[in-house]
Amino acid sequence: MSRPSPDHHTPAAPAASSGRPRLSIPGSGLAKGLAVTLRTMTRKTVTQQYPDAQPELPPRTRGVIGLFEENCTVCMLCARECPDWCIYIDSHKETVPPAAPGGRERSRNVLDRFAIDFSLCMYCGICIEVCPFDALFWSPEFEYAETDIHELTHERDKLREWMWTVPAPPALDPAAEEPKEIAAARKTAEKLSAAARAESTEPESTGPLSTRPESTGPQSTGPESTGPESTGPEGGDA
Questions:
Q1: What does the alpha-carbon distance between residue 156 and residue 135 come to, in Å, rounded to a whole number?
Q2: How confident is the model at residue 27 (pLDDT cuts 50, 70, 90)?
Q3: Torsion angle of alpha carbons 37, 40, 42, 44, nearest 10°?
Q4: Per DSSP, what are the bridge partners of residue 109?
Q5: Residue 73: alpha-carbon gap to chain centroid
Q6: Where are the beta strands (DSSP E) in 128-216?
Q7: DSSP assignment of 47-102
Q8: Cβ pair 165, 139 in contact under 8 A
Q9: What is the per-residue pLDDT for 6?
Q10: pTM score, two decimals?
Q11: CA–CA dist 132, 153 (Å, integer)
């Protein structure tokens, strides 16, 4: 491998980077600015006159959280996983009598308070994702600004009202597999309907029992009516 000679020099830099001033046409900057202005003036405006014109939001917009109270079992998962600790839940336990005689009493959690402080919420959606019973939903509603920060804490009554603004879920793919929950519910409904039909047809199956020969049984024509009492040895002795 040969070493470079001491007389070797690096090639000269191009003329553009040598620090020499560029030649410019007088008035070119003004022409470029006028071209930008003209192009912007002819472009369609995107400014919406809110609130006179409502924005068209995508269906998965994270506006506010709605609560479906009937599905809440007070498992506290949403409050534990919330990174901002903006979900407040209070509950107590009640004893439920046994469903069948001889069964054991059960205890269940009863929801007393469910509130979300939207002044702390960062709309991450973790509470909705971790809920195992689908009690929380996203609503695209966003017009709930308040002048008092304390009013941004929505109690469960107000969270329930947001449920009316939750869009319907998208339709399932016709070729998709039936969800296990729906399949189980359908089988249960079919069993209940079959049991109801069996109960409704039960009197017809027991109808012939009323015409059994019990009423004209052997008691009337049996050996008791013509038994040995009437023709016994006592009558013969008399």
A1: 12
A2: confident
A3: -160
A4: 93
A5: 14
A6: 136-139, 153-154
A7: ---TTTS-----TT---EEEE-GGG-----HHHHH-TT--EEEEEEEEEEPPSSTT
A8: yes
A9: 46
A10: 0.56
A11: 24
